[in-house]
Specification:
DNA-binding transcription factor activity, 16% strand, 8 strands, Arc Repressor Mutant, subunit A, alpha+beta, 6-stranded antiparallel beta sheet, Tscrpt_reg_IclR_C, DNA binding, Beta-Lactamase, single chain, WH_DNA-bd_sf, two-stranded antiparallel ribbon
């Protein structure tokens, strides 16, 4: 637990209980919870009683053990995921655009397509823009490959089945796509020449939690394809720092 300027012990105990139960595959007894958190059973009893009364935990009638309810899930879904992503990303992306002098965009999977949710532009540079609301073919973008790299094989097959052009692609192209996805999974990002814009170079990194509505990508597309490897490494680091800040704004711990 990190140190904070202002302490709220009761709140911290309640949050500790919720986080502990969220990580458990089965119900937990009051004694189990107390032992795991290093608290007395009387402390835990009072907190569990409050959490149960507010609907955050459920006590099994026969077992007397506790599990999480869907209350936290319901609270989270009162917020639009799209709005949360845009709000968490706007300021970090504005800073990134000014730092690297290139436009950057936030994208999500939309069936077999890539949807641009948010774009930030530098103020004093001519750069390659994509445009908010733009729809691009998922399989032909760096961001699409990053998103696919976070999916299991079954989900990837589902996406491939939605793409009208995939079946007619050559076996060589399909193997190259599979390798690109594997490389993205290994490296945690993609740097590649654009398949959609001649002379452009794309950098894309993941954002959010894989398998959830927050799974997204942060990317830049630059016409400076002749930039040195050292310069691109610097750009990748800047984009990844920005992604980490966005994750922090979403409440997602850095890995």
């Amino acid at each position: 637990m990190s140190e904070s300027k202002y302490s709220a012990p009761a709140l911290e105990k309640g949050l500790d209980i919720l986080e502990f139960l969220a990580a458990q595959p089965v119900e937990q007894s009051q004694a189990d919870i107390a032992q795991a958190l290093g608290r007395t059973q009387s402390e835990i009893y009072r907190m569990l009683s409050c959490l149960e009364a507010r609907g955050y935990v459920i006590k099994g009638e026969s077992s007397g053990c506790y599990r999480l309810s869907l209350r936290v899930f319901e609270l989270g879904h009162q917020q639009s995921t799209t709005s949360l992503l845009r709000r968490a990303a706007r300021l970090p992306m504005d800073t990134l655009a000014e730092e690297i002098g290139q436009a950057c965009h936030l994208s999500v999977e939309h069936g077999a397509s890539l949807l641009i949710l948010l774009e930030s532009m530098p103020r004093r540079r001519i750069c390659l823009a994509v445009g908010e609301g733009t729809i691009l073919p998922l399989l032909q973008t760096a961001s699409g490959k990053v998103l696919l790299s976070r999916m299991d094989d079954e989900e990837i097959e589902r996406i491939l089945g939605l793409d009208e052009d995939y079946a007619s692609r050559s076996e060589k192209w399909k193997k190259m796509l599979a390798q690109s996805i594997a490389d993205a999974r290994r490296d945690g990002y993609v740097v590649t020449e654009s398949e959609l814009t001649v002379g452009a170079q794309d950098v894309s990194v993941p954002i959010g939690v894989a398998g959830t509505d927050t799974s997204a990508t942060l990317a830049i597309s630059s016409l400076q394809s002749n930039t040195s490897r050292k310069a691109w490494d610097k750009t990748v680091k800047a984009v990844r720092r920005c992604a980490a800040e966005i994750n922090s704004n979403l409440g997602i711990a850095s890995t």
